[in-house]
Every structure is written in structure tokens, then in C-alpha cells.
């Protein structure tokens, strides 16, 4: 799982159709509320741009991934990055807020394909956060992917490369031959 909040957080509005102020609309992202922290962190590497939209996202950040996809972090109260800054996963982008068109303090997280359109991609597939209202917890130091956890517990991989392994095993990054080779070599040493 990857989350813009460290520690406990709530998913308050899932992706999909919802009724808001008496109107049915399609919610293109997920709404999250940080419980243990109000710091919104990057969920991936890539340049970020600080923007404002009065009747929509309020103060928001648009981040570009290497493949051109765009991540939106909306309704912030404050930016903690400069426009155009290149950030790494886990860097603090801003503070959760209630700017723009909102009913309360939260961060709207959304993923869009390469280009300029407003169509969206399922952010839950990217993050691993279930698209179900509820409380969750994310630890920046430990994976929530069972396969990665088993590899760490068996001493095959270290937490130093945990992000790379999570992304590759979840299909969000290409599986590198050097990592596969290392994996086989370490398993071979372990069973020999």
C-alpha cells in the first residue's frame, strides 16, 4: 500500500458514483483524511506543480510520473514544495485542508492518464488502498504487500530497496533483470 499520509488515515469517499448536495456525480478519485498526520506526502517520484482552482480543487498539486500520468493532491491548505520541484516518494508536498469546493477537511487523491483530459484512472489500483470507506494505516518503513514482507522476513531483500520491490511486484514499475537475478542468487544461497 502507498498512501499520502503516514500512520492512520480514513477513506471518507470512495471512487465511483455518489450523491453530493442532492446531485449524483462520478467521483474520479478518493477522499482521504489523515488521522495521525495532516502532512500530505508524495506517493511517487516526479515533478510537481502548485495550482489553485477556486470552485474545484482549491490549492492543489499536479505531479507528473515518468510515463506521463498525472497525480492530483487537492484541497490543500498550504504548499510545502516549490512550483516545478522534483520530489521523491515520501516528500512532504503540503498540508491537508479544505480549500476549493469541499464539505470538510480532506485530501482528494486522483490519477489521470497522460495528456490534458479530465478522464481518470483508478487510483486504488495504483496505491493499493481499498476503494471502501474505512480506516487504514500506512507505514513508510514497512510494506503491506505480503510477498515483499515475506522476502524481508526471509532475509532475501532489505528494507533499503522496499519501494522498488513494491512497485515491481505490484506491476507499477517494470521488473528489472538485475533485481530478479539478485532474488534468485539470494534464495539459492539461503537453501544451499
Count of distinct strands: 12
Note the overall shape. elongated
Question: Residue ranges: pLDDT <50 for 5 or more in a row?
Answer: none
Question: CATH superfamily of the largest domain, called what?
Answer: Glucose Permease (Domain IIA)
- Taken as a percent bin, the fraction of beta residues is 35-45%
CATH class of the largest domain, anyone? Answer: Mainly Beta
**Helix-residue proportion:** 10-25%
Helix and strand element order: EEEEEEEEEEEHEHHH
Q: Identify the quaternary structure here.
A: single chain
> What CATH architecture label of the largest domain applies?
Distorted Sandwich
Mean pLDDT: 88
Number of helices: 4
Radius of gyration: 18 Å
Largest sheet: 10 strands, antiparallel
Enter the CATH topology name of the largest domain: Glucose Permease (Domain IIA)
Number of domains: 2
Distance between the termini: 33 Å
Structure summarized in a few sentences:
It is built from four helices and twelve strands, in the order βββββββββββαβααα.
List the helices and strands and how they pair.
Blueprint: E1 7-13, E2 16-20, E3 23-27, E4 30-34, E5 39-41, E6 46-53, E7 58-64, E8 70-79, E9 86-87, E10 92-96, E11 107-112, H1 123-127, E12 134-138, H2 146-153, H3 162-169, H4 177-191
Antiparallel strand pairs: 1-4, 1-12, 2-3, 4-11, 5-10, 6-7, 6-9, 7-8, 8-10, 8-11
Q: Explain this structure to me?
A:
This protein has 192 residues and is an alpha+beta fold. It folds into two domains: 7-138, Glucose Permease (Domain IIA) (Distorted Sandwich), CATH 2.70.70.10; 146-187, no CATH class. Helices cover 19% and strands 35% of the residues. It has four helices and twelve strands, in the order E-E-E-E-E-E-E-E-E-E-E-H-E-H-H-H. Strands 1, 4, 5, 6, 7, 8, 9, 10, 11 and 12 form a ten-stranded antiparallel β-sheet that branches. Strands 2-3 form a two-stranded antiparallel ribbon. Strand 6 (46-53) and strand 7 (58-64) form a beta hairpin. The protein is elongated, with a radius of gyration of 18 Å. The model has no long low-confidence stretch (mean pLDDT 88).
